[in-house]
Amino acid sequence: MIIAAAERAATEHLGRQWACEGFTDLNDRSAHPCGILRGEPFSVFAKLSSADDGRVQFTRELAGLALITKLSSAATPTPVATGIAEIPASAAQGTRWLLLFEALPERTTDRSPDDFRAIGRTLARLHEVHHTHFGLADLDGYFGPFPQDNRPVPASTWPDFYAGRRVRPMLKVAVDSGNLPGELAHGIERILDRLPDLCGPEVRPSLLHGDAQQNNFLATPSGAVVIDACPYFGHPEVDLALVDYFEPVPAEVFGGYGEIKPIDDGFAGRRELWRVFAYLAVISADGQNPWGRRHLRRLADAIGRYS
Length: 307
Prior knowledge:
Layout: H1 2-14, E1 22-25, E2 34-38, E3 44-49, H2 54-71, E4 79-87, E5 96-102, H3 113-127, E6 141-143, E7 146-148, H4 158-177, H5 182-198, E8 206-208, E9 217-220, E10 223-226, E11 232-234, H6 236-242, H7 252-258, H8 267-286, H9 290-306
Antiparallel strand pairs: 1-2, 2-3, 3-5, 4-5, 6-7, 8-11, 9-10
């Protein structure tokens, strides 16, 4: 059923019959099952969701990428047909959804220094796009599986937006999950009380990727391509903090960024502050497993630093 749904969408996209000739599994690279359906004259990247709100998630992801394409020079993949295909419910499973893009030639391993510089330059080009307010009035997103509220806040300052739209909502989710110890929740409240003093100089709202960890950029022969974005206008250091919050990146990422925009000297001291909401998301989703417990330790270290 999955292949048939993708073939129908690709046939509509191409204007003539498209057939799948093979499949490459990419499940180890994504929170969703995904892979490449090989065919001619293009192959199709497909990502599967069985979530009740799967269509909403994918619709917002497509809208976010379209916004990035409209406002910046950053490259994004081309949706296949509408970009979303429905797999009707069966006796065994409910309705599922496919997110479909034209597959791109990419290096998944052994990225070169130029590949990493391209990630930095792409982030900098996004951050050259500005707005008058933090947030994004017309488009909410998802950070991982969690809905993300992008509405601007009345005060229109970064500390207020970061507290009200990023940290406090994820703190509630983490507490409700039962995975966040009470002492860590109290520590985050202490950080929130200090945010105006911790956030550094006020900045112009910049267009952010929103989930800029390094695997959310494809390394292609023509440069970095943005995927899995949840954009809004925010502090550019958030993207810089998330690019290596799962695993280290070479210095070329930050060197490439610096070719276009300077990085404030205080960023290193604020890096963990911008990761707090992301740590909470990992803990909420996976706090009972080794991966989640690792982020509990990292969150505890951040609380010790800033509270």
